[in-house]
Amino acid sequence: MEKLISASLIGLSQGAIFALMALALVLVFRSTRVVNFAQAGQAMVSTYIGWEVVTRTENYWIALPAAALAGALLAAIIETFLMRPLAKRASHGAIAPVASIIASLGVLGVLHSGAAMIWTTEQKLFESPVSVNGIEIGSTVYPFSQADMLIISTVVIVMLTFAFFFQRTSLGLSLRAAAFQPEISRLAGVRVDRVRTIGWALSGAAGAVVGVLVTPGNYLSPFSLDILLVYGFVAAVIGGLESPQGAALGGLILGMSLSFTSIYVSSGLTFIVPFIVLLLILLVKPKGIFGGGSSRNA
Amino acid sequence: MHSTHRRRLILFIVVGAVLFYFSSRVGILRLYQGSTVSMYVIAIGSIILLTGYSGQISLGNGAFMAIGAYVAVLSQLYLDLPFFLTFFVAVLGAALAGLVLGIAAARLTGPYLAGATLALAVALPSIANLFPVLGGEQGLGYDSGNAPSLFGEVARFKWLFWISSLAALITCLLLQNILKSRYGRAWKSIRSNSVAAELTGINAAKSKVLAFVLSAGIAGLAGAVLTMSLGTVSPSAFPLSLSFALITGAVIAGISSLLPGSLVGAVVLVGMSQLVGALTTRFEIGDVLAQNLKELIVSALLILAVVFTPNGPGEKIREMRDHRKHHSHGGHR
User: Fold this and answer.
1) Is residue A136 domain-resident?
2) Counted domains in chain B
3) Which of A84, A88, B172, B255 is deepest in the core (most CB within 10 A)?
4) ipTM
5) CATH number for the domain that contains residue A117
């Protein structure tokens, strides 16, 4: 019973992180058809900015929005000065289907090496605003801390804000329209280019929040968020890459599978589980759970 | 058709002879770099076949290299296979893994395939820690043998260079022939329009799986070559950055240019370390900068290449020439 509760709680906390990272990737993919591998690097740079703020002000609650702002700005810059011109230049030939993936790998490399030059590869300690120790109930200590609760509640708040934004605001509506039918939206007066940049900025902010949530209790280094990119991407692909609900579900599925296998089977399986889960789901649904066909109206 | 095959064969024999001649006239460092370049040529070739021709992207070719490497080492360790045969087994083993994944991958497009192969690249090296027979982090040793006595006493690095450059030459020759054959044309037609390709009688799914299998097999050979020059195999030799480096190498000189594309890409990847080393000593750059300069330059180069010469410098030059011709015609009118 204890095992079951522990596994579920860890799965929930991990799943929330994966879900938010997946959402960041989905936001970009939906609006510009780019699988943004630089997301890990963008989140990492934003987290370093959050770390700078936290070491100066000693206030986590200033660092979190500061990092989110930095993440949004960085993403907007990448979209405006690299991805948009690239889409026009590399629109034909053998490179066309993969050009943006390749460019984002290049950006990831630049961010990695740039961050290592500025902040060195030495691990930085990022203090958590709340306790990272397991919660004690009765005589048993569960591997679930206040920090995990902070993660889950923040992710839920961010997700609900996004859902409200997409469903209930006119900017959210034009974002969905531009993602679904760019040409028609343009005719309907949506400034598609600007809306796309906003989509990127939102994604950058979400990625930054992931970094600032997950780093306390761990260490920060230029490569510390890379593995989250893999998990987030797997979660996004499980969900179908285009649907925010899919991202949330994919994150949860992945988080639960990881925590249950590591508690019930072996922690050595951490890197193999995502591949197996992904393959199983893609064999049944090659475009993910919510992907393909009619669900593009999400 | 036959004469082009023969011409290619003769060309490759000549290149081989030239390499053989120079192998006795350069130092150990150059021989080692030559082996590494050969390894990269093979590995980049596997990407060019897969991405440049069949239009599929793999972020996991480093994983197929790992499979090839481990199969080579295990077949030597447990089956006592002679050195040369381990290479063939490595190709077969990696190709078999490619077949399994390729059948699944044939249903996946673009980003979904990228996701599956990325997860594979992360998953695979960790398997080495699960089964004691694979040697864990320490890895397993690999004996690359000695040159046949007919060559007399051959230094180790020279022997390694011979093997790896021979493997690279054979790979390029075979790949060139495959890419120019009806298979190559089928891949290209699927890449540009799969519906139209199916209408001309091409089985798109089968062709894609075939490309995946061949690419995996070639990557497996590159893995065996890498293991041979390292003398051991261990999970740390196949990080995710290796898979990314292969893509960089394939893109720099044009994703569908096997020759000279793969060679240019390989030389850039290997030469950059030396260039950065030279820059560091020349300008007395600090340690922190120097350690990261190589990745910065390579990544920046990748971005510049994909923005300014998306389909390789070759196409760019052709485009500019056409443009000029067009202009001069306009002037006469």
Assistant:
1) no
2) 1
3) B255
4) 0.87
5) 1.10.3470
